[in-house]
């Protein structure tokens, strides 16, 4: 039963909520607006909020002057590559832990979670030296490997909580009806598992896209994804607000859109199923 | 017979994941431990002789270590305080019946999807810059002198940036938890004459305890390793004013090429993170069983 509230109260609460939401969102909005200004207008005092000459110049220039597309593709390859590789390794593991749980399943899961608590600086030097000596430094392959390992515990956990919800009885029923293992997997389990796998994929692409420790430390010009490319704007000579804004908008827009679709999965995935 | 068969199959299915993670834990970590006992600097080629605990002694007695440790605690604590308190208030607000709730949610959640380097640079240049930033403009139009955030309050500035990124996370989780609150229980309490405050204290707060624990645990894992935000805003400075442990180890390792010292620092970071992790796992274990 919905709580009944007076219209007046609802108006006030709505106004407050919108004001707070606007404030929280404002930095992104401001970046969006600045990306359409000229460099002069971007630093004008007093600032121009809406009434300026909107221009696409910055987007064009960022694309022309730097290898923006290369870095964008690096981000795509690294985030999607590490997620898919992670899923290939994690699906069988999560599957068997969910459907054939043993005595130690809980311990294995907790242990996997604990590897996530290893601070990256604890292994920074060996990884850095290994990468230098094996030629993995500044390659997409190297980053895909590292991010796969980092994301693996979360992928296993997420899949596990989804697979856990597939009722086991349905398998028995199918078996009674004479379904073989192959039919079982193809016609019954796979369709039921796909939504969980899809949400895991989505959330992990987001996390990998935004990962900014290894991507900053293990890449230079060739394999740098957008996180590292944007970081190059921190040097004073690269300080052009409008271009920084345009590059930023292009870097965050795809993930912002994906993220809005994955709100529910985000809660589940990042709390390891503890909050649904 | 079937179970024996399926158990073997399941072991086979789990082993790639387990072996990979085991290797990921053991190989680099033991290399770090090994390096931490060597006099090994990349700028000085030659013999890497064994020097015992000297690297640890050096790292632990460096005044920068104490600063970094305190900064790490202040950073984690500050962000946790802002995000849990702010997140609870925001979740309570968004749980009210309002018009356009979907859009409000989308706006509030957005900062979480912004990559760290982008949010740090946007805040640094377009808001906190005393000359061209919006905060400077607001201060000047109020007749106040503009404040150079990153020069005079670097750690505070980093806390604000990181808190902005994580506030959506805590809000979303606490909101999800609030929405699973049984409304009949609330109505029953209301009918029994419980006021808004006592309803909040006796029903809402206990209900949110578990979600809050989860928020604290997960954020702590990520917050102990804040790096990009510091790298692109302050470079740990001025001096070491905004250097956290992660950044200190990075600077020792990759800026000063001190493999030995950096490794010792890395191991110390691992030990400290483990202390926090054990503490938190116990806390979450208690809460999750209940």
Describe this structure in words.
Chain A has 276 residues and is mostly helical. Helices cover 71% and strands 0% of the residues of chain A. Chain A is globular. Chain B is an all-alpha fold and 290 residues long. Chain B has a single domain (56-289), classed as MetI-like (MetI-like fold), CATH 1.10.3720. The longest helix of chain B has 34 residues, at 2-35. Chain B is globular. Classes of the chains: A mainly alpha (276), B mainly alpha (290). At the A-B interface, helix 1, helix 4, helix 5, helix 6 and helix 7 of A face helix 1, helix 3, helix 4, helix 5 and helix 6 of B.
Look up the CATH topology of chain B. Answer: MetI-like fold
Which H/E pattern describes the elements of chain A? HHHHHHHHHHHHH
Radius of gyration of chain B using CA atoms only: 24 Å
Q: Which regions of chain B have little confidence, pLDDT < 50, spanning 5+ residues?
A: none
What summary fits the major beta sheet of chain B? none
Which oligomerization state do the chains in this entry correspond to?
A: heterodimer
């Amino acid at each position: 039963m919905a709580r009944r509230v007076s219209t007046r109260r609802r108006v006030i609460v709505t106004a407050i909520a919108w004001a707070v939401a606007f404030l929280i969102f404002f930095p992104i909005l401001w970046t969006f607006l600045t990306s359409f200004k000229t460099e002069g207008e971007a630093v004008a005092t007093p600032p121009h909020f809406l009434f300026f000459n909107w221009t696409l110049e910055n987007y064009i220039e960022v694309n022309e002057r730097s290898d923006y597309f290369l870095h964008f593709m690096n981000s795509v390859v690294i985030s999607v590559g590490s997620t898919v590789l992670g899923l290939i390794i994690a699906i069988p593991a999560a599957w068997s832990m969910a459907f054939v749980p043993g005595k130690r399943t809980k311990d294995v899961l907790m242990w996997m979670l604990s590897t996530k608590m290893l601070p990256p600086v604890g292994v920074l030097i060996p990884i850095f030296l290994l990468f230098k000596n094996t030629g993995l430094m500044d390659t997409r392959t190297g980053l895909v490997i590292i991010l796969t390992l980092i994301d693996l515990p979360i992928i296993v956990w997420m899949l596990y909580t989804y697979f856990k919800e597939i009722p086991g009885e349905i398998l028995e029923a199918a078996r009674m009806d004479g379904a073989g293992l192959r039919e079982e997997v193809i016609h019954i389990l796979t369709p039921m598992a796909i939504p969980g796998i899809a949400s895991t994929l989505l959330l992990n692409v987001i996390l990998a896209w935004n990962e900014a420790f290894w991507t900053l430390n293990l890449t230079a010009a060739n394999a740098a994804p957008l996180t590292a490319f944007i970081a190059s704007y921190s040097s004073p000579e690269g300080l052009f607000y409008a271009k920084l804004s345009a590059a930023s908008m292009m870097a965050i827009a795809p993930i912002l859109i994906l993220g809005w679709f994955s709100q529910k999965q985000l809660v589940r995935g990042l709390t390891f199923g503890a909050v649904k | 017979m079937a179970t024996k068969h399926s158990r073997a199959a399941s072991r086979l299915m789990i082993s790639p994941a387990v072996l990979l993670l085991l290797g990921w834990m053991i190989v680099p970590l033991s290399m770090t431990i090994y390096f931490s006992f060597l006099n090994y600097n990349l700028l000085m080629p030659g013999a890497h002789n064994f020097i015992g605990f000297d690297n640890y002694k050096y790292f632990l007695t460096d005044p920068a270590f104490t600063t970094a440790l305190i900064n790490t605690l202040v950073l984690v604590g500050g962000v946790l305080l802002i995000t849990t308190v702010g997140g609870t208030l925001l979740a309570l607000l968004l749980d009210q019946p309002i018009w356009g709730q979907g859009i409000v949610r989308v706006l509030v959640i957005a900062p979480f999807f912004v990559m760290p380097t982008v949010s740090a640079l946007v805040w640094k240049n377009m808001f906190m810059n005393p000359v061209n930033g919006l905060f400077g403009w607001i201060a000047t139009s109020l007749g106040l002198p503009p404040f150079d955030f990153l020069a005079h309050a670097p750690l505070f500035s980093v806390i604000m940036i990181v808190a902005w990124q994580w506030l959506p996370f805590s809000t979303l989780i606490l909101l999800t938890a609030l929405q699973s609150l049984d409304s009949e229980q609330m109505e029953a309490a209301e009918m029994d004459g419980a006021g808004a405050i006592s309803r909040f204290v006796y029903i809402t707060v206990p209900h949110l305890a578990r979600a809050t624990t989860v928020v604290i645990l997960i954020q702590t894992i990520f917050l102990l390793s804040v790096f990009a935000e510091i790298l692109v805003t302050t470079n740990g400075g001025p001096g070491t004013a905004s250097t956290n442990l992660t950044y200190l180890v990075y600077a020792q390792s990759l800026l000063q090429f001190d493999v030995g010292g950096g490794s010792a620092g890395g191991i110390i970071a691992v030990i400290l993170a483990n202390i926090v992790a054990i503490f938190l796992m116990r806390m979450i274990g208690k809460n999750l069983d209940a």
